[in-house]
């Protein structure tokens, strides 16, 4: 899986836990967006600051489970279609 921080957007206070719990390779935003599935992570201000791209469904599901284990919720859990290019967007409840 690949990840990137978006320029000019403050990372969430819990971001260090994401990096600690997920095996992610740092890449450019364009490289991450080319992955098959895209996860966004929102900061406390509600802005998507981190992108996580997964090539395989299994990787996407593993990343989603890890983010849920960190106490985050997927705001697109009930959506059948991606929103703004994201297959999941995680935030603090």
Describe it.
The chain has helices spanning 15-21, 29-33, 57-69; strands at 2-5, 25-26, 37-42, 48-54, 73-74, 88-91. The longest helix is centred in the C-terminal third of the chain and has 13 residues, at 57-69. The protein is globular and about 30 Å long. 31% of the residues are buried. It is of the alpha/beta class and 93 residues long. It has 3 helices and 6 strands; from the N terminus they run βαβαββαββ. It has a 6-stranded mixed sheet with strand order 2-1-4-3-6-5.
Describe this protein with a few key phrases.
globular; alpha/beta; 27% helix; six-stranded mixed β-sheet; 93 residues
User: Percent of residues in helical segments?
Assistant: 25-40%
User: So what's the overall shape?
Assistant: globular
Largest sheet, strands/sense/barrel: 6 strands, mixed
Strand order, biggest sheet? 2-1-4-3-6-5
Structural class: alpha/beta
Proportion of beta-strand residues: 25-35%
The number of helical segments is 3
Task: State the end-to-end distance.
Answer: 25 Å
Q: What oligomeric arrangement do these chains adopt?
A: single chain
